[in-house]
Automatic annotation (TrEMBL):
Keywords: Methyltransferase, RNA-binding, S-adenosyl-L-methionine, Transferase. It comes from Noviherbaspirillum denitrificans. GO terms for biological process: RNA methylation. It comes from the Bacteria. Belongs to the class I-like SAM-binding methyltransferase superfamily. RsmB/NOP family. This is SAM-dependent methyltransferase. Residues 140-417 form the SAM-dependent MTase RsmB/NOP-type domain. Signal peptide: none annotated.
Length: 418
């Protein structure tokens, strides 16, 4: 069925705002939809898909849009919509626009210059090529430009993974077990989950398999004192609380009251009562100092460039710059140093990011070790063996979409000497 002709115009208008990169694309798009309440769900879905296609493929589309007719932003909108929905679904096009789209469809995209195929900003692609070589960098870039599957985590307090698979099948939703995370499920389609009893009762949460693994490697146990230092809306907090079987004490710190507030309804669904959300002013807040050397396990899911999550947030690649990475590095070093003070002798500290860059990952981890003689690195292969996770790693956890089908993640585990 063809889409309403207004979809192209709305995609063009939304892009005009989003491509100014004054804020996150999802926030600007939600605002756009609030300002245009007459757009139906199908049209909204189409506009969103068109916008995200443009964000993913901005460089190659800009080169295609050098030909064509009408405003440049309309050409980008047409390219995005035609790619994800098919040119036949678009209504209200001028004859020359349809002809142009047909000509574009005949381009062999595998023959484009690598930078256009990668669709990454030059500084970022150059960094990845320098580290991984051109072929591997391109594979990574292409995987980052695809849609992510929908992963769920089963809340072990409420259900078993096999039972959830059977329950979802009745919906009918096909789910398979994730290969590495012990409580994960992967869906190939993206059904609405909010109204399923499984979701409302807290038996499932949406969480990428890689994110589940970051919580897993902290190894939190029953009865322990645990801190999630950068808890945000609590994706990992919820996984940690369930690993602790709702015992012990789990602090969820964050500087953002707004993000922590989003944890509340998720906590209510989850059935967890061992979580204590605490808003802090900064990483050296007095509330942190009071807990010095008292915590068994501390997770630092640090603020980062988010470049590992481009499958979901493709605008991040255009919003980050080499300068923003340097600023993040200072923050990451400072947060990790402060969080380390919480750790008991013999306790563990995990530094994690959803970044792909060495500067935010290995460099922060090795800088920490160099300045903290009382901590040692626990090789990731040992941690994964302890947790019975079937992944081959060296010293660090490094997950990639083209290899592990997860978002890009990094983690290092440290132990405080006794
Ligand atoms: C990667 S996000 C956390 C995502 C979250 N752990 C999850 O799994 O959903 C990083 C978080 O760090 C928080 N943050 C930024 N600066 C901080 C600081 N100085 N101390 C603690 N948290 C901070 C941000 O507000 C953000 O929520």
């Amino acid at each position: 069925m063809r889409l309403h002709p207004a979809v192209v115009g709305h995609t063009e208008e939304a892009l005009r705002e989003i491509l100014r990169f004054t804020g996150p694309a999802d926030v600007i798009l939600s605002r756009y939809f609030r300002e245009h309440p007459k757009l139906g769900p199908r049209e909204r879905g189409a506009v969103a898909e068109g916008v995200y296609a443009v964000l993913r493929n901005k460089l190659s589309y800009a080169s295609f849009a050098e030909s064509g007719h009408g405003p440049a932003m309309r050409r980008l909108a047409l390219l995005g919509l035609a790619d994800v929905l098919g040119a036949d679904a678009l209504a209200g096009l001028a004859a020359e626009e349809s002809d142009w789209l047909q000509r574009i469809a005949q381009i062999d995209r595998t023959a484009l210059p690598v930078t256009l195929r990668a669709n990454l900003p030059q500084w970022l692609f150059d960094k990845l090529v320098a580290r991984d070589g051109e072929a591997a960098a391109l594979q990574l870039a292409e995987a980052l430009n695809r849609n992510a599957p929908l992963d769920l985590r089963v809340n072990v307090l409420k259900a078993k993974r096999e039972d959830v698979v059977a329950e979802l099948a009745k919906a009918p939703i096909v789910a398979e077990m994730t290969p590495y995370a012990p409580f994960g499920l992967r869906l190939h389609k993206k059904p609405a989950l909010q109204n399923l009893p499984l979701f409302k009762d807290g038996a499932i949460e949406v969480q990428d398999e890689g994110s589940q693994l970051l919580a897993q490697i902290l190894g939190a146990k029953r009865g322990e004192m645990v801190a999630d230092f950068c808890a945000g809306a609590g994706g990992k907090t919820l996984a940690l609380g369930a690993m602790m079987r709702n015992t012990g004490r789990l602090y969820a710190f964050d500087v953002s009251e707004k993000r922590l507030a989003k944890l509340k309804p998720r906590l209510a669904r989850s059935g967890l009562s061992n979580v204590h959300p605490v808003v802090i002013a900064h990483e050296n807040d007095a509330k942190i100092k009071r807990l010095a050397a008292k915590i068994d396990r501390v997770l630092v899911d640090a603020p980062c460039s988010g470049l590992g999550t481009l499958r979901r947030n493709p605008d991040m690649k255009w919003r980050q710059t080499p300068e923003s990475i340097v600023e993040l590095n200072a923050k990451q070093t400072s947060i990790l140093a402060s969080a380390a003070r919480l750790v008991k002798p013999g306790g563990r500290l995990v530094y994690a990011t959803c970044s792909l860059l060495d500067e935010e990952n290995e460099a922060i981890a090795s800088g920490f070790l160099a300045s903290h003689a009382d901590f040692t690195l626990v090789p990731m292969k040992d941690v994964l063996a302890e947790q019975k996770v079937a992944l081959e790693m060296g010293d660090y956890l490094k997950l990639y979409p083209h290899i592990h089908q997860t978002d890009g993640f990094f983690a290092a585990v440290f132990e405080r000497k006794k």
